[in-house]
């Protein structure tokens, strides 16, 4: 990974005791609080406080990177990038995500994700992501983009 964590911070898998902190972070970011399984999360802990979390969920033939949150007072320090890169390395199947807004699309593009259409999703993700796509049609002011990880080499080419 490009940027190491500061010495007072560690990356670790979540434990059962972390679930309430994970829920708080996810809710504070206005993300979907359902289907949060602590065993699927990785955390960044600094000075004894959980400051970032991210989940890698398994589906038939695919995985989803979800619930990635950095606590407000800890943003702009590279934690989101570090955690995303770690989750990408943990993935063992094609990796997808949904994101709201253009700023997040730019963030994930830098890390090797590209927008894909709903029709290009594996069947196991079509239902899950289809609900959000339907909602964004009803509420057109909400921009939802589905993305797939295609690798760092592609993201570098896109940025040049």
Task: Please give the structural blueprint.
Elements: E1 9-13, H1 19-28, E2 41-46, E3 49-59, E4 62-70, H2 79-90, E5 95-100, H3 102-110, E6 113-115, H4 123-138, E7 144-149, H5 152-159
Parallel strand pairs: 4-5
Antiparallel strand pairs: 1-2, 2-3, 3-4, 5-7, 6-7
Please explain how this structure is put together:
The chain is an alpha+beta fold. Helices cover 34% and strands 29% of the residues. It has a seven-stranded mixed β-sheet, with helices on both faces. Strand 3 and strand 4 (62-70) form a beta hairpin. The protein is globular, with a radius of gyration of 15 Å. Mean pLDDT is 87; it is low at 153-160.
